[in-house]
Write a structure and sequence with these properties.
Oligomer: single chain
Number of helices: 20
CATH topology of the largest domain: Nucleotidyltransferase, domain 5
Structural class: alpha/beta
Distance between the termini: 67 Å
CATH architecture of the largest domain: 2-Layer Sandwich
Bound molecules: D-xylulose
Shape: globular
Radius of gyration: 23 Å
CATH class of the largest domain: Alpha Beta
Number of strands: 23
CATH superfamily of the largest domain: ATPase, nucleotide binding domain
Strand content: 15-25%
Length: 528
């Protein structure tokens, strides 16, 4: 019988499924369900509830549960052999939190297949909506927690990151502050990942070390809840949090609800879920230190494996637990694709092809012209007041401005990844914009490193399916190595390698210093 494993990815805008046939090294099924389109009754825009305060970004947790029912029903309809799936794991958008009351555990243990998940979950939430990673309304709470933990460097050293607005701890503190009664009614606080795992397992599921590190609540070295961080966040927090666990841990067999309703095998195992970035690390095969990924999406991320835990003293980057053991580092830049689009549109450039052609008419290094594209408040470097800054760059020139934004984004990645002290030996480019040769050329030259394209559209769901396989194999007494586990699933596109041009790389070696000086100058202007 084929060894089938299911990986789910509950992301900001959609729920996706990937089924792998482990022995044949193939993805045999994948599907996505867009929340806005499939579940319009929840009235989300791109998966998020509209709010008058642009800093507040919440989503309805019931929508995520409804999506699980819908997706599994669609899989049945598509003829997926759900009864042959041996284990299920998943990935969740990081940092988002779900608040459950005293009725939740019992409701989860007794999910009735005669009703929908949504009906089963009536009355189990102590907070109707969930703050998600896009929320930046907790600056006050971040400052308070950071102060109690001893400042930026100490906070990062203890929890893996400085306090960030989107991180769960500051979000919990805000909830406790604005609605102490509802906080008092809260018996369990889950992450998006552990909430979804709890549904599948029919019991409150643990949080894994990857997603747990995105909360400002976990001791990054010991991988246990950090007593000082809990105390600095909210009273009585410890008993509201589940246990922490390795991402290969089996929570238990899948709930009878999914057996009866969707035809899952009663012996199928439900695993602990992780965050989307830790899952993508596995789904892209970034198992060894030195292999990093740059994902060019709504926001750009730079991440890779880290052998031992090294935190960022400046508090810009994050360290999470890696599902493959050890650690991973991640930097999240908010001004990614949307910023590139803004420049493209501002200069009336019709396509990315034309954008690339314009870039090619200007020299690497742009004759020293620099543009800082902070259209939105930026995470790295931390910029609270959005704005565009130009240095030795004429606003009029379309070609120079197109080159400038791409160079700035890559120089920023090079500069702000220095704390990791990991020289990449190859970079995997992924995400929507990674099929643009002009961008990959600048990436290879600025990073002075070869770049390979990897076209896995659902790297988080694939990573989750591989984690399900890992957990199941370990339980079956096998000891699969990680390289062996991902082999055949995560190969770069043949012939996609872009090698750095030594002459251009020398230009960027000098320009990165100027770029850093321009950033310092712009930040000074902003805070003046
Ligand atoms: C990572 C982060 C985002 C979310 C989006 O820190 O905030 O990448 O995980 O899914």
């Amino acid at each position: 019988m084929a060894k089938l494993f299911l990986g789910l990815d509950s992301s900001t805008q959609s729920l996706s499924a990937v089924v792998i046939d482990y022995e044949r090294r193939r993805v045999v099924y994948d599907k996505s369900l867009n929340f806005d389109q499939a579940l319009p009754q929840y009235k989300t825009q791109n998966g998020v509830l509209p709010h008058r305060d642009p800093l507040v970004k919440h989503s309805p947790p019931l929508m995520w549960a409804a999506a699980l029912d819908l997706l599994l029903a669609a899989m049945q309809k598509d003829g997926v052999a759900l009864g042959d799936i041996l284990a299920v794991s998943g990935s969740g958008q990081q940092h988002g939190s779900v608040y459950l009351n005293a009725r939740a555990a019992e409701a989860l243990a007794n999910l009735d297949p005669g009703m929908s998940l949504v009906e089963n979950l009536k009355g189990v939430f102590s907070r109707r909506t969930s703050p998600i990673w896009m929320d930046s309304s907790t600056a006050v709470e971040c400052a308070e927690i950071r102060k109690k933990l001893g400042g930026i460097q100490r906070t990062a050293q203890q929890t893996g990151s400085d306090t960030f607005e989107r991180f769960t701890g500051p979000q919990i503190r805000k909830f406790y502050r604005i609605d102490p009664e509802a906080y008092a009614q809260t018996e369990h606080i889950a992450l998006v990942s552990s909430f979804m795992a709890s549904l599948l397992a029919g019991q409150i599921a643990p949080i894994d070390y990857g997603d747990g590190a995105g909360m400002n609540l976990m001791d990054i070295h010991q991988k246990v809840w950090h007593p000082g961080a809990l105390k600095a966040t909210a009273p009585g927090l410890r008993h509201r949090l589940p246990s922490l666990a390795d991402s290969s841990k089996i929570v238990g067999p899948v709930s009878n609800y999914f057996v009866k309703k969707h035809g899952l095998n009663p012996a199928a195992q439900a695993l602990v879920w992780s965050g989307d970035n830790p899952c993508s690390l596995v789904g892209l095969g970034l198992i060894k230190q030195g292999r990093v990924a740059i994902s060019l999406g709504t926001s750009d991320t730079y991440f890779g494996s880290m052998r031992s835990c090294r935190t960022d003293d400046f508090g810009e980057g994050h360290v999470f637990g890696s599902p493959a053991g050890g650690y991973m580092s991640l930097i999240c830049f908010k001004n990614g694709s949307l910023a590139r689009e803004k420049i493209r549109d501002a200069y009336g450039v019709k396509s990315w092809k034309e954008f690339g052609e314009l870039m090619a008419t200007t020299p690497p290094g742009n004759d020293g012209g620099i543009l800082l594209p902070w259209f939105e408040a930026e995470i790295v470097p931390r910029v609270n007041r959005p704005g565009i800054h130009r240095f030795d760059l004429d606003e009029q020139g379309a070609a120079a401005n197109c080159r400038a934004i791409v160079e700035a984004q890559m120089l920023s990645k090079r500069l702000h990844a220095q704390w990791m002290k990991v020289e990449p030996d190859c970079i995997y480019a992924t995400g929507g914009a990674s099929n643009d040769p002009a961008l990959l050329r600048v990436m290879a030259d600025v990073m002075n490193c070869r770049v390979l394209r990897i076209e896995i559209s659902k790297s988080a769901a694939l990573g989750a399916a591989l984690l399900a396989a890992h957990g199941w194999l370990v339980q079956a007494g096998e000891k699969p190595g990680w390289e062996e586990l991902v082999a055949g699933f995560t190969d770069p596109i043949p012939g996609s390698e872009v090698r750095p041009d030594p002459k251009a790389a020398r230009v960027y070696d000098r320009l990165v210093e100027k770029y850093a000086a321009c950033e310092r100058e712009a930040l000074k202007q902003i805070s003046a």
